[in-house]
TrEMBL record:
SMART domains (alphabetical): CoA_trans (SM00882)
PANTHER family referenced in this protein's UniProt entry, alphabetically: ACETATE COA-TRANSFERASE SUBUNIT ALPHA (PTHR13707:SF60), KETOACID-COENZYME A TRANSFERASE (PTHR13707)
Protein's UniProt name: CoA transferase subunit A
Native organism: Flavobacterium capsici
Pfam families per the UniProt record, alphabetical: CoA_trans
GO molecular function: CoA-transferase activity
Keyword terms, alphabetized: Transferase
Similarity-based family: Belongs to the 3-oxoacid CoA-transferase subunit A family.
Superkingdom in the source lineage: Bacteria
UniProt cross-references to NCBIfam families, sorted A to Z: pcaI_scoA_fam
InterPro entries linked: 3-oxoacid_CoA-transf_A, CoA_trans_fam_I, CoA_transf_BS, NagB/RpiA_transferase-like
Length: 233
């Protein structure tokens, strides 16, 4: 069995350079690779194209990279929680490609499966479809979307083993699952890293063949974007 374990986040992110395209898992702040994002800030890589559901918040997640002007382009489906993102987009400092959320997920999954492109009805008749091939299927118009091409994919999982097999917890599975194996190199950041054979094969969500590097993260904050609780009676 090939051992995919690396000893640190620094070792895991070796090879990431300026001008690269990087996928980052998570939904809002749920299931984001916190240690890897912090390391990208330290590496001071710039002109990155980031593919992620959103851009985090001002002082956490991808918002940390935005603060340092390390991202030149964001490909996302929702960006409403980040004031700095809004400022950079409106000022022209940041290039933004908004994508319907289901299309974003499918563009990741298509890359993961080796499918170069697919047709979807989402976005037809809107700015999303401008400049793209369209075709009618069963009386309904569809837009041709191409799979993502990324240099690195960074995902976060609850548990993993040294062969790269991953288990996600609850909704933190989100975009992490379709992004695993969707780039040239996939890095998995996990809360608990176990020896091969420790995971129940029936519970594994992503097989190790999708992962090239895996490491155990530390000191996860697991912030909540908007904490909403009901008032006590």
């Amino acid at each position: 069995m090939i051992n995919k374990k690396v000893n640190s986040v620094t070792e895991a992110l070796q090879g990431i350079e300026d001008n690269m395209t990087i996928m980052l898992g998570g939904f809002g702040l749920c299931g984001i690779p916190e240690n890897s994002i912090a390391e990208l800030v330290k590496k001071e890589v710039t002109n990155l194209t980031c593919i992620s559901n959103n851009a985090g918040v001002d002082d956490f997640g991808l918002g940390l990279l935005l603060q340092k002007k390390q991202i030149k382009k964001m490909i996302s489906s929702y960006v409403g929680e980040n004031a700095e993102f809004e400022r950079q987009m409106l000022s022209g400092e940041l290039e933004v490609e908004l994508t319907p959320q289901g299309t974003l997920a499918e563009k990741c999954r298509a890359a993961q499966a080796g499918i170069p492109a697919f047709f979807t009805p989402a976005g037809y008749g809107t700015e999303v479809a401008e400049g793209k091939e369209t075709r009618e299927f069963n009386g309904k118009m569809h837009v041709l979307e191409h799979a993502f091409k990324a240099d690195f994919s960074i995902v976060k999982a609850w548990k993993g083993d040294e062969a790269g097999n991953l288990i996600f917890k609850g909704t933190a599975r989100n975009f992490n699952a379709p992004m695993a194996g969707a780039a040239k190199i996939t890095i998995a950041e996990v809360e608990e890293l176990l020896p091969v054979g420790s995971l129940d094969p029936n519970q594994i969500h992503i097989p190790g063949i999708m992962i090239q590097r895996i490491f155990q993260g530390e000191k996860f904050e697991k912030r909540i974007e908007q904490r909403t609780v009901r008032q006590r009676n």
